Amino acid sequence: MLDSASGAILDDQAIDADDARAFLHPHPAEDTAILELAMGQDGVLAFRVDVEGSRLHLTEILAGDDPVIAGFSPSGARLLVTPYPSDPQTVRMLSWPDLKEISRLDASDVDAAYGFGLAGCWINDDRAAVYATEDALIVTDENFDSPERIALPIDFGDEGEIESLTHLGSGNVAVGAWTPAGRLTLVVRLIEGKGCD
Question: Quick one: which of 4, 10, 51, 103 is 20 to 30 A from 150 by CA?
Fold first, then answer.
């Protein structure tokens, strides 16, 4: 942490995460964030980062479980966590600020034979989207009570993958995909109670 006036280092924290790519997920309403450290084959670490006076405080999230942070709900009350490829069977919902698991979606609940991919996003405070690997978009409520499979017009082949899901507003989700034929982006328009266009 730096002093904005002088540039002096006020505090730092060492984390054992060699060759990691860092991603910061700021909370939409509070002065806190999630630091995600992706380490390739070595998994991923995630920490809640809080500033207390002139000190940094780190709290590890789901230690040992390789949590991939898909993001905060728009209100900031929930955190969507997708699985790492080494164990792709469960998507989790954590409450904020206590980071307790409040619900989970297992691959068997939606017939996702290959589990879930890394991509996920919030559509609004009541709905989120995740990806069943080489299969379909899964749209569900905030408690994973009513998951809906949405087939996508993408030929995944044996190696295709959805790389990103991004909410664009008004129920539209951009799907960034890689297929053996090349990269593509499509926009899925979700209609409440009717699936998609």
Answer: 103
Stretches where the chain sits below pLDDT 70 are: 192-197
What is the reported pTM? 0.90
The pLDDT, as a whole number, for residue 14 is 87
Task: Report the 10 Å Cβ neighbour count for 111.
Answer: 10
Q: Of 3.30.565.10, 2.40.30.10, 3.50.50.60, 2.130.10.10, which CATH number belongs to 21-196? A: 2.130.10.10
d(CA 140, CA 132): 12
Q: Which tokens hold the place of 143?
A: 């408690």
> Measuring CA to CA, which residue among 28, 45, 147 is closest to residue 96?
28
pLDDT confidence of residue 65: 93
pLDDT of residue 142: 93
* Sheet with 182-191, side-by-side order of all strands: 161-169, 172-179, 182-191, 195-196
